[in-house]
Design a protein that fits this description.
645 residues, alpha/beta, Rossmann fold, 23 helices, 47% helix, elongated, disordered C terminus
């Protein structure tokens, strides 16, 4: 194998020969291939000046740092700059010194750089074409034929990568821009609109399509996927923008379309400058850091380069997995993986004193509704309420700038203990905020509200289900489909809101930035999704027909609602500058109420669970235990109410 030094010397030697040849050919062209005798001597005399100058500028402009096999536009620019600079210098020297007896025709001074550019640039691109044909040319008639949906920048990048692919052979492009129909992009013809896919695929006998629309509006991407899958085609897509930006995944690493691609939404626009001010160089603590939301929060926070990130979790395994993930990355932030229970006041105080975080994100909670409903009622109240109070109170005493509580839509009109416990956690944070100065502006701005007043600002963020989180329905359905079914659904009419984990984490951070203290931020969860339709989509995307996988309805689980709500019946919202965030105007409590609540929870540790649920209605007025909800209300889904919620 040739060494890099040998390759550089070969390229250098080639350019020297080309420089000599270009100088001589310029004279031949000037004199119609009959050079007069009086110029035969001056040709080589001037060449002794011109060629060393040209070679000097070749080296100066870094022509030998690149690799010919990957020659591209930047290499062409360097060649052009080197040749142009050399040409101007030669003309200037000849004009200034005017060598006696030597005349250089002006046409030669014009022709020489043009010829040199053509020879040097051309040889590099001929070499690159030859190498690529040698490596990939014989694969042009191999690989699976495929259509690409989209003709934008993502599709162009995909075509460039697939030129070298042994797996795929692009037959054509489809795009809704009628102006480019019939034209070619990188030698591939735009065959028509996306809506014409079924007919075009059938006429060309193609069974595979790649959706190349990562930066388009979500609805356009979803429509393309639905048309392709509806036509019975194998549907693939390119990696997400986040994966591509990480540098670890190339655009040609296509994958099968997943249900997340249908449920996903447009990218979240963040106040990056504000978040930079909030996080960069500061200490941040995330409780429940090993969980779905907590771990994603850590990933998003690291992008803003905090000085220290403390990852707190009661689970040693969860922290170990997070530590292993981050250890494979080049992260400048100091990372600390601390085990601990948020109910342990001494441990919490010690950590806050040691690391002095500016912001705390509290994601630690019990969240599985059926498990908390029977046999674990007091533990749910203890962990979700007392744990929140313990950490929040310690943050207040340590003058932490912001405390952000991760809440849930299940806290709204709860019919289960988990939801009621999260509503109580919200009220605890608002109760701790009661002594907050009333003269602080109620306006929500996009800048960090952290000041020097040494008062902790408690911010609550409420949202619904996140895609792919532990215990969520999508991984469960995926596993059931892989086993051949049946797919089990609790009720035909059950609906849920869905949001991607990165989107949820980003909006939590944005709400944390915007909060003045005491607000409940409600995330825009989009439209509710019918779970039966979700299951049907997943079966279809798995390449199976609806009659191949059975769907069974097994009845609502303990504490489960037919639909989730983001606002209680007596709540209203205020707009914020961020289109995906609103503020719920909910019932608030004071610090005295919080202390009475904690005393009640501690007093019920050994009480009967039915008794706890009955008394829980006193503390959460909107809480209605499931056994008190009539079967008629549970199993009749009012269409108008679904629209409302």
């Amino acid at each position: 194998m040739q060494s890099p030094n040998w390759r550089r010397f070969s390229a250098f030697f080639h350019d020297v020969l080309v420089a000599v040849l270009a100088w001589f050919v310029a004279y031949l062209l000037r004199f119609n291939f009959k050079i007069p005798v009086e110029f035969t001597t001056s040709i080589w005399q001037v060449a002794l000046l011109v060629i060393p100058l040209q070679v000097l500028f070749f080296i100066q402009f870094g022509l030998y740092k690149g690799v010919w096999r990957f020659a591209s536009l930047p290499d062409l620019k360097r060649i052009l700059m080197a040749i142009s600079t050399a040409a101007i210098t030669v003309v200037a020297l000849l004009f200034m010194f005017k060598p006696v007896g030597i005349v250089v025709p002006r046409a030669v001074l014009v022709l020489n750089p043009i010829l040199l550019m053509l020879m040097m640039g051309g040889s590099r691109f001929v070499y690159r074409s030859w190498k690529e044909h040698k490596l990939y040319g014989f694969n042009q008639m191999r690989g699976e034929p495929v259509l690409v949906l989209g003709a934008g920048e993502a599709a162009i990048a995909l075509l460039k990568d697939l030129e070298r692919s042994q797996e795929w052979r692009v037959i054509g492009l489809l795009d809704d821009d009628a102006a480019i129909h019939g034209r070619e992009i990188m030698g591939i013809k735009v065959l028509g609109a996306v809506a014409q896919l079924p007919e075009i695929a059938k006429s060309l006998d193609i069974s595979n399509v790649i959706v190349a629309k990562p930066t388009d509006a979500h609805q356009a991407r979803r429509r393309a996927i639905e048309i392709a899958s509806g036509a019975g085609l194998q549907v693939f897509t390119i990696p997400s923008v986040e994966d591509l930006m990480s540098g670890n995944i190339k655009i040609s690493k296509i994958r099968h379309v997943e249900i997340e691609d249908l449920l996903g939404r447009d990218a979240v626009q963040l106040d990056n400058s504000g978040l930079q001010h909030l996080i960069e160089g500061n200490a941040v603590l995330v409780s429940g850091a090993g969980g779905s939301i907590g771990s994603e929060l850590c990933r998003q926070i690291i992008k803003y380069k905090p000085g220290t990130l403390v990852c707190l979790d009661i689970s040693e395994l969860a922290l170990y997995n997070l530590e292993q993930e981050f250890s494979r990355q080049n992260i400048s932030t100091q990372l600390f993986y601390m085990t601990g229970d948020v109910k342990n006041s001494q441990r919490v105080k010690s950590l806050l004193e040691q690391f002095q975080p500016r912001v705390v994100f509290h994601a630690a909670a019990y969240k599985h509704v059926p498990l908390m409903e029977n046999g674990n009622v007091w533990e749910a109240l203890s962990n979700n309420v007392i744990g929140t109070y313990t950490l929040a109170k310690a943050c207040k005493e340590a003058a932490v700038g912001k405390f952000v509580l991760i809440s849930t839509d299940k806290a709204v009109n709860p019919t289960n203990v988990m939801g009621a416990s999260k509503r109580l956690a919200e009220m605890v944070c608002q109760g701790l905020q009661e002594d907050f100065s009333e003269d602080i502006s109620k306006d929500i701005s996009n800048k960090s509200q952290l000041g020097n007043d040494e008062v902790t600002r408690f911010v609550i963020v409420r949202f619904g289900n996140v895609l792919g989180s532990s215990g969520s329905v999508i991984p469960k359905f995926r596993e059931q489909i892989a086993k051949g079914g049946p797919v089990t659904i609790t009720h035909p009419d059950i609906t849920r809101y869905f949001m991607s984990i990165p989107e949820a984490a980003q909006l939590v951070m944005q709400a944390g930035l915007m909060g003045n203290g005491g607000e409940i931020f409600v995330l825009d969860m989009g439209e509710p999704v019918k779970i039966s339709a979700l299951a049907a989509d997943m079966i279809r995307l798995s390449g199976l027909q609806a009659d191949e996988i059975k769907i069974e309805y097994v009845g609502l689980r303990p504490g489960e609602k037919l639909y989730e709500e983001l606002l209680a019946d007596d709540e209203h919202t205020m707009l914020t500058p961020h289109e995906k965030l609103r503020i719920a105007q909910a019932r608030q409590v004071d610090n005295v109420w919080v202390k009475k609540l904690l005393k009640w929870i501690e007093s019920t540790q050994n009480a009967n669970e039915a008794h706890i649920k009955n008394e829980l209605k006193f503390w959460v007025e909107e809480y209605t235990p499931q056994h008190q909800v009539s079967s008629e209300v549970l199993f009749i889904l009012d269409a108008e109410k679904v629209t409302l919620h």
